[in-house]
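User: As part of a screening pipeline, I want to sanity-check one entry by hand. Below is the sequence and the SMILES for magnesium ion. Please return the complex as structure tokens so I can compare it with the automated output.
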Amino acid sequence: MFESPLRRTTVVAFANQKGGVGKSTTAINLGAALSGMGEQILIIDCDPQSNATSGLGIDRRFVDKSVYDVILGEATLDEIILPTGVDRLALAPSSIDLAAVEIELVARFSRERQMAIAIDKLGYEYDFVFIDCPPSLGLITVNALTAADEVIIPIQAEYYALEGLSQLLKSIQAIQLNLNPTLEIEGAVITMLDRRTTLGTDVAQQVREHFGSKAYQAVIPRTVRLAEAPSFGEPIEAFDPKSRGAIAYRELAEEFRRRHGRRS
Ligand SMILES: Nc1ncnc2c1ncn2[C@@H]1O[C@H](COP(=O)(O)OP(=O)(O)OP(=O)(O)O)[C@@H](O)[C@H]1O
Ligand SMILES: [Mg+2]
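Assistant: Here is the complex for your manual check:
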């Protein structure tokens, strides 16, 4: 059967065990910017904190089945996926139960592959499936990296930005060796950059030295609007499309599409 290389689903994990670096914000806003450019996107919220779920306007109190049930093999992704307020952007919601999944998985067969198995069974071919990881390198993140074709590492422009990175890179290598040999580091995205400080620009420079061409040219600035949007349950593209944050995420989306062979 002929398979178009441009139309296969690509699974991208957003990972960094450091908390609060912009994983969820980048998954949501890059996802929304891409859907605005015509791509069909699914975001899988793998974090018990449910920030991607609430940031897309879904109240987790009303989530019946979640990624928790999927990872335990008690529901399919198709059964839990919800539409969001954004066209072409769907969400597999998280719930607080997910916090227990690490323990429940321990004794299971193929415990690292549950997410990969679930994604293989998706009934609809999305252009990109984004997995928003929790801030740890535990079994949920291992599941995400085992299911992923690519990983994007958001890096906050602050002191010690690169600290802990070697741990993440070691985990990625271990997964490449044992579970998912084709996993690639797709890129690193600098987030929350304050251009008025030399610190911010120094960190950006360090990230570029470390990641070379894998560091995205587009950089996400620190803006109040980006911090406010999740409490309105909207991506920045819907909340304030003219803001600097929205412009930056559209630039990131354009670069992401070029890197994935899209022509325009
Ligand atoms: N560019 C930005 N400008 C201002 N605030 C931002 C920006 N990006 C993210 N934030 C805010 O910083 C906080 C952390 O961001 P986010 O939740 O995306 O990080 P995370 O890596 O997913 O965190 P966690 O590790 O807890 O999952 C959030 O309150 C978010 O709204
Ligand atoms: Mg998060």
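Points to compare against the pipeline: The radius of gyration is 17 Å. The beta strands are 10-14, 41-45, 82-83, 89-92, 128-132, 150-156, 184-191.
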